[in-house]
Amino acid sequence: VLLQESGPGVVRPSGTLSLTCDVSGGSLTTADWWSWIRQPPGKGLEWIGEISNSGTTHYHPSFKSRVAISIDMSKNQFSLKVTSVTAADTAIYYCAKGGLADSWGQGTLVSVSS
Amino acid sequence: QSVLTQPPSASGTPGQRVTISCSGNTSNIGIHLVNWYQQLPGKAPKLLLYRDDQRPSGVPARFSGSKSGNTASLSISGLQSEDEGHYHCAAWDDSLNVSAVFGGGTLLTVL
Question: How many CB atoms lie within 10 A of CB B11?
Answer without folding.
Answer: 13
